[in-house]
Specification:
By secondary structure, the chain is of the alpha+beta class. The mean pLDDT is about 95. It is globular and about 55 Å long. The longest helix is centred in the N-terminal third of the chain and has 19 residues.
Length: about 210
């Protein structure tokens, strides 16, 4: 698929057919993540492709338990509102494959330098955006586009990361590992699903000459 066609036609999909992507398809998708730009070329990332239904189910249970824990600490009205997010947080169980995107620990040289120079954490945050997280974003976008190019679809999910501690245990990750997002992969259930509306270019672009 030509690159601009791929970008222009990619859609976020939350409902999938029974088709299970092949190992080669998943390897091709994750290889696209491997080739993404990385801050200082640290490549401090790891991508875990979960096909196993039992593991996915346990991940869902962990998310639901976390929602219960959170809502138990809230007033009734707020708890009810938060509970409405549950369905949007657990549909990944129905996806044929879930790619868990993990940022592995790497020191930030300039972050350390700015701290030594006496800048506050707020100042450092503004002067030095999280370059490793930005690198992860590039890798994840590469996977979403590669999946689309292969005739597959994806959904980039952050909500389930509420249960990051439980996910780490299920996936045998290290304490210092940081789960950034999960990416569902599969073929769309419908032939031509709708795409969420996007803001017009004129609303988000400014050209200064």
């Amino acid at each position: 698929m030509e690159i601009f066609e791929c970008v222009d036609t990619r859609k976020t999909i939350r409902k999938y057919s029974d088709y299970v992507p092949t190992d080669d398809e998943i390897k091709r998708i994750i290889n696209s993540a491997r080739l993404a730009p990385a801050a200082m070329n640290t490549q401090n990332w790891k991508f875990i492709a979960v096909f196993n239904k039992d593991i996915k189910h346990k991940m869902v249970e962990a998310v639901l338990n976390k929602y219960d824990e959170i809502t138990s600490k809230l007033d009734e009205a707020t708890a009810k509102q938060v509970s409405s997010y549950k369905a949007h947080s657990i549909f990944f169980e129905t996806a044929p494959v879930v790619i868990v995107c993990v940022e592995t620990k790497a020191p930030s040289f300039m972050g350390g330098v700015l701290e030594m120079a006496g800048y506050s954490q707020d100042e450092i945050s503004n002067m030095r955006p999280d370059s490793y997280l930005l690198s992860m974003g590039g890798a994840i976008e590469n996977m979403a586009l590669s999946a689309h190019a292969l005739g597959l679809s994806s959904c980039w999910m952050v909500a389930p990361i509420l249960a990051y501690e439980e996910f780490k245990n299920l996936l045998n990750l290290k304490e210092e590992d940081k789960i950034v997002t999960i990416l569902t992969i599969g073929k769309p259930y419908a032939d031509n699903p709708n795409r969420a509306p996007k803001k017009p270019l004129e609303e988000v672009m400014e050209i200064m000459k």
